[in-house]
Specification:
Layout: H1 2-9, E1 16-24, E2 30-38, H2 40-46, H3 50-53, H4 65-68, H5 73-83, E3 87-93, E4 98-106, E5 113-120, H6 122-143, H7 153-163, E6 171-178, H8 181-188, H9 190-207, E7 213-216, E8 221-226, H10 231-246, E9 249-250, E10 253-254, E11 257-264, H11 271-290, H12 299-306, H13 319-326
Helix pairs in contact: 8-9, 9-10, 11-13
InterPro entries: Diguanylate_Cyclase (IPR050469), GGDEF_dom (IPR000160), Nucleotide_cyclase (IPR029787), Rev_trsase/Diguanyl_cyclase (IPR043128)
GO molecular function: diguanylate cyclase activity
Organism: Alkalibaculum bacchi
């Protein structure tokens, strides 16, 4: 009764199903499978017509799209016989542009009959892809600045802790501050201020190496982590940054950015103090710009002087205190380099 009932509802199922039975040789050993019944959905999806497969051995009916793509149903059924438990695999059909779940399970009326089913899971797979994409977007947004597409402060702090180890020494930190951002926002509009920040990000990326950590950490502030980079090599990167800024224009004005840097040479040095030194050096240079100290032919040389290597015990230059008190009053000097 169970058998007749199961076969009766086979055609009502939306999932493609085929009822098959184990065939044995004269020694009662497994040799093949035989199609007992298939439903309409099975015919529609596989293209195997009922009259062509019923009471035929599975090994002789292997010309479906799924077999051509390496999914040999007979192997699935053999594996089921050997393991004695249900089997599920996922398969993408290029011809049908669909994802399917292929499965084999035992039928209840006897152990010699097996249900082979084929379920279209394209919608399910698409939803999973969308969820994965959303998760990747949220992850990206949590560690990136939306305007410049650079890393944000949160990611920078994570990487600072990760890279502040002996094997990454010398570790250099560059502090960059965009000059005149407030003036630009107030007088030219925030959309021009955004362009200023985006151009700065492009310059930083173009002058740094793969593996360097570049982040926008504040409104007009950027930081760069340079693992395994000496003070001398950092100066070379700064030189490239200066030259690139001087040939980069926003609203017919060259990009003006103040830089400062410091290098952690030994493991016992505090990375927070290294960051403070980089920031102090940046403010020192910003003040030198304001006081019109820099000359066209010595700009990089003075940059190096302002960012000299300081020992941990050195006191910050007295000029730094004055810089902080000046705050937004500082106006950079735009100098064109030769």
């Amino acid at each position: 009764m169970k058998r007749e009932f199961c076969e009766g509802i086979l055609n009502e199922l939306p999932i493609a199903c085929a009822c098959i039975k184990v065939t044995r040789d004269q020694r009662n050993e497994f040799c093949d499978f035989e199609y007992v019944n298939v439903n309409n959905a099975f015919e529609d999806i596989t293209g195997l017509r009922r009259e062509k497969v019923l009471h035929k051995k599975m090994s002789l009916v292997g010309n479906s799209e799924f077999s051509k793509n390496g999914i040999e149903w007979i192997h699935l059924c053999k594996e089921f016989i050997q393991k004695g438990q249900s089997i599920n695999i996922e398969h993408y059909s290029k011809d049908l542009n669909c994802w399917f779940r292929l499965g084999v399970k035992n039928l209840s009326w006897d152990s010699e009959h097996i249900l082979l089913y084929l379920e279209d899971i394209s919608v399910e797979v698409q939803k999973l892809k969308e969820l994965k994409q959303e998760a990747e977007i949220y992850k990206y947004m949590s560690f990136h600045d939306s305007l410049t597409k650079l890393y944000n402060r949160a990611f920078f702090e994570v990487e600072l802790k990760r890279l502040s180890t002996e094997r990454e020494l010398p570790l250099s930190v560059i502090m960059a501050d965009v000059n005149d951002l407030k003036y630009t926002n107030d007088n030219l509009g925030h959309h021009i201020g955004d362009q200023l920040l985006q151009k700065t990000a492009e310059v930083l990326k173009s002058c740094c190496r793969e593996g360097d950590i570049i982040a926008r950490v504040g409104g007009d502030e950027f930081k760069i982590l340079l693992p395994k980079t000496s003070h001398k090599d950092t100066e070379k990167i700064i030189s490239r940054l200066i030259r690139t800024c001087n040939i980069t224009y926003v609203e017919a004005r060259p990009l003006s950015v103040s830089f400062g840097w410091a290098t952690k040479m030994t493991d016992y040095e505090d990375i927070e103090q290294i960051q403070r030194k980089a920031e102090e050096n940046m403010y020192d240079y910003k003040l030198r710009l304001k006081e019109n100290v820099l000359k066209e032919d010595v700009k990089i040389k003075v940059y190096k002087s302002a960012n000299r290597t300081l020992a941990i015990s050195d006191k910050p230059p007295a000029i730094s205190a004055r810089v902080k008190s000046l705050g937004s009053k500082i106006k950079p000097l735009h100098i064109k380099m030769t």
